[in-house]
């Protein structure tokens, strides 16, 4: 977290540039939001699912209000102005905002870990530029984050091949090389809120490699990059943000309600009951010995497979049913403790919040109907 000293220094740095007629340092009053979990699923305070404790910039930090939010909106406008000047899509702005929120709480700091400074806590010793310039001319810091400066400079966003189709937190991590890579994705919603307050169009199309020193991948430019372009499975199967939750460890102590004869955790049994109540008749099984893969969640009583009746690649009804099941599992993950979902060749996790291609986990053939999860939806619980 950041203190009132950060806020005061941030206002002063803005005022010195003439962006505010009067600069004022103030203490933002922050309210800690409580996480409300449904009792049957075992919500508590032992394990935080979305991010590791003990480092700044967590997604569970309370949103800024008052003077700090005003300051953040000002810096957001500056970041977006650089993106617009370059011709970058709105998604580039969103990733930059997510990154700056983690690194500096979207403030132009004159200090940081070791020699890190500025909005993105860039290190001069790592080649990001002169410390004084990065702070006194924050547009240079933004330009450096977006990248394209060629050899001798750390790679920025436009230097990452295929970044528009990557999870946004992963793009930020490739630029920042942080010790806490999971932090970036947790700030997406806050970044969106700030962008909305700043009047920033995050759906803006553009050249995702604008300003790149070399030719873009494939030698061509992709125009019209859309926000959340993660190539999801189908339906609206993308929550677009991580699901924060506190889920204490549970042992398998309850008889599997799907009739396998094994034991599952209370959280898994509760999920089965909710799924049946909301999705109607389901063909599913949870516990399984999985002797070929003892590390699976099935023998630990933490996973269920819900069958869709056919290979969804060849059956529209099966595809629609699978989409329905996966959508419901994701939308209720914050209340039920869903850890990840695998469906139709892709995997969604609560930590990431977006779908990525499923590689088979090193055990199954991902092109097979069962191995690639085209005939069933796999749901794992924390």
UniProtKB/TrEMBL annotation:
Bilayer-spanning residue ranges: 19-42
Keyword field: Membrane, Transmembrane, Transmembrane helix
One family name in Pfam for this protein: VldE
Native source organism of the sequence: Kribbella karoonensis
ARB-07466-like C-terminal domain: residues covered: 262-362
Superkingdom, natural source: Bacteria
InterPro entries (alphabetical): ARB_07466-like_C
Ranges for region Disordered: 237-262
Name of this protein: Heavy metal transporter
